[in-house]
Design brief:
The protein is 18% helix and 29% strand. The chain is of the alpha+beta class and 401 residues long. The strands form seven sheets. It has a six-stranded mixed sheet, with no helix packed on it.
Length: 401
């Protein structure tokens, strides 16, 4: 049995460097940038007005002395020529600043009498002007490699005139559940059966890091059927195979035996963590194989703690362990044993508005309803003596969406 940290180290040693691919900007949401985004032009490319109003020379604006209107500058159609002394130009938001102007006065502070424009206030030089390059300069790094592309980042990339982006490739993942006791949701339950649930949680949890997540369904506790299903996944060419169930040491827990028979080189099969001790990891060629426990909470927690960081590392995320926080306890944390405990918890705010974390007392690895209500996992170290309320603890927020 090995520690969680050693398990992650061993897994990371088996991961290849992320590979790039080019995708259209419209399909880049939530993808990971494979190389820095560099500005190919300056934005804005000219001094521009920040509002609707009048472009002026600040030194010529005197109360009671109007300026003569010389023309208009609007977005996409600038004022041609130089603004002469004693003149002003009607200007609109985003329009190029006329040559000779050094300030913009908003239209609410101006009064027109034919072509003579008077102003209520004298402006400082530079008022309401977006200077050339105010947003970014040509050659500037706009985004580093390793960021997950958000809507605001895609907006920036579009502003930088990128129709495509170079992002990291995502692996294809195959997921299967094993057990004679399992019935698909909506099926008829026998007297000794339960509804299979793991794949329905794991697929949306892992899909953000997958090119495709294939559900291979429920496989009975039969060596030949299990072998056939796994061979189908390997032959399909998936980069990651995830199984749930059959990873323990019972007489009908065949997963480890079948994986070895199929040429999987197992690296480890027990972890010092709870929930989730019976977890296997191995490789078959370039395919990674994760054998998760069958209990629903164990499957989801091990996928969150072990599998998701591995997938984030595979796909080039700058921080494979994001998100993690340090938060104060809202209640006492009981003592822990020799295995690292990832304890279900809720997040809320105290009377002072400070975010804090409350442990959920339920620790059974099949208790799905407590996990569904959890906002986070408290990471409690091995042999922790317990902690009083107010202690800062490590927390993994459960961002299911």
């Amino acid at each position: 049995m090995i520690s969680v940290d050693e398990a992650l180290d061993r897994i990371f040693l088996q991961l290849d460097a992320p590979q790039p691919e080019i995708v259209p900007l419209a399909r880049a949401h939530r993808r990971v940038l494979a190389e820095p985004l560099i500005a190919s032009h300056t934005q804005p490319p000219f001094d521009a007005s920040a509002m609707d109003g009048y472009a002026v020379r600040a030194g010529e604006v005197l109360l009671g002395r109007p300026l003569r209107l010389a023309g208009t500058s609007q977005a996409g159609q600038r004022f041609v020529g130089m603004m002469e002394q004693g003149q002003c130009v009607r200007i609109f938001t985003g329009a190029p600043l006329p040559i000779g102007a050094d300030a913009v006065i908003m239209q609410e502070q101006a009064r027109a009498d034919g072509n003579l424009i008077s102003f209520e206030k004298t402006p400082p030089v530079g008022q309401s002007i977006r200077r050339r390059g105010h947003d970014f300069e040509q050659g500037q790094e706009l985004l580093p490699a390793g960021v997950t592309l958000t809507p605001a980042m895609l907006n920036l990339a579009a502003s930088a005139n990128y129709p495509t982006l170079t992002v990291t490739k995502r692996p294809r993942i195959a997921i299967l559940a094993t057990g004679d006791e399992l019935v698909a949701p909506g099926g008829t339950l026998g007297p000794d059966q339960i509804v299979a649930s793991n794949s329905y949680g794991l697929i949306p949890l892992l899909s953000p890091y997958a090119d495709k997540a294939v559900d291979l369904g429920i496989i009975p506790d039969d060596k030949k059927k299990l072998e056939s299903a796994l061979l189908g996944a390997f032959d399909y060419g998936v980069e990651v195979v995830v199984t749930t169930g059959g990873a323990s040491v019972g007489e009908r827990d065949y997963m480890r035996e079948v994986l070895v028979d199929l040429g999987v080189k197992l690296d480890f099969w027990k972890l010092m963590m709870r929930p989730g001790k019976p977890l296997m990891f191995g490789t078959r060629g370039s395919t990674l194989v994760f054998g998760l426990p069958g209990n629903p909470v164990s499957a989801m927690v091990t996928a969150t703690v072990i599998l998701r960081p591995a997938l984030r590392q595979m796909t080039g995320h700058a921080d494979p362990f994001w998100p993690q926080l340090g938060l104060p306890l809202a209640a006492t944390l009981p003592p822990n044993g020799p295995r690292r405990h990832f304890m279900r918890a809720t997040l809320d705010r105290n009377e002072g508005g400070i975010l804090h974390v409350t442990p959920i007392s339920e620790t059974d690895s099949s208790h799905s309803s407590s996990l569904a209500l959890a906002d986070a996992l408290i990471v409690q170290p091995e042999n922790d003596p317990g902690q009083p309320a107010g202690t800062i603890v490590d927390v993994i927020p459960l961002i299911w969406g």
